[in-house]
Amino acid sequence: MEETLIEEGESNREGGEVSPALIAVHPLEKSLAVSIGSELRVFDLIEDCSISLVDDSGGPLHSDSIRAICFGANGKLFASAGDDKLVKVWTTNPWRCISTVIAEKRVSAVAISHDGLFVSFADKFGVVWVTGTDGDHEAKEKASPLFGHYCSIITSLEFSPDGRFIVSADRDFKIRVTVFPKNPFSGAHEIQSFCLGHTEFVSCLSFVCTQEHPQGFLLSGSGDSTVRLWDVRSGSLLDTCEVGSEAGLSECDGKEENVCPAITDICTSADGSIVAVGIQSLHGVVLLSCDLSARTLSVIKVMHLDPSIPSS
Q1: Whole-angstrom Cα distance, residue 32 to residue 125?
Q2: Structural domain boundaries enclosing 141
Q3: Most buried by CB count within 10 Å: which residue of 82, 135, 162, 236?
Q4: What is the pTM of this model?
């Protein structure tokens, strides 16, 4: 979530408004988690009913806007975090909160390692922290600094599909690929690569992988209205899709510059062939084709939703 939304959230609290809704789908499509403001709700997609959440962590409940939610790779764990400086880790069968970490600053991003042993989160000052999900109760309530982005707000965190890297994006246009160490509580000191090329803040990250490419490739969205495909091992830019212009949303502001609507979210299909892209100013989504063999992205369709149907 980009800094503008964080700043809006700060002023919105004074006006009684809440942050934008966040949605996360269970990897096996068993459940759907939705956060609106400080409220977290979960729906059972198989039984078609809401799920009651139980908090066994002994920590406080969310009291301010939730800014980040995510499922673990196998769907057994879920994490929520936000402006109240809380990072809450949940099991999903049954749904209950097993630990609550109190961060030093407001939290802007969260991710769960692929083995489910660690939860990483980023605060507003650009520091990435790590906490464990296994061990005694006291250990699960503490976090250790992993690395930092030097006071640049981190907008997104993702673990690579093979678990080797943790990828972080920030407001200063850069994407950092860090080797995730065997003992993360001692810090992550090895940088694998930087993915550089965006000309505005990086708003979202997502990995896409197939059976032929299990290591995965990285997708990034930005305030420059593009979605880009990367090889994180080398930091190489493989392809750029000008989503804003393809959707007809880039406009001239009268100063010979294009006004680019920001990419707000990226979601990939299970087989990695389709990428759904959310973009500001579009009441709908843009569908991209992702060909990992050819290392290319291309627009398939711009899907417009009926504006008379509420979306939030």
Answers
A1: 30
A2: 3-196
A3: 82
A4: 0.86
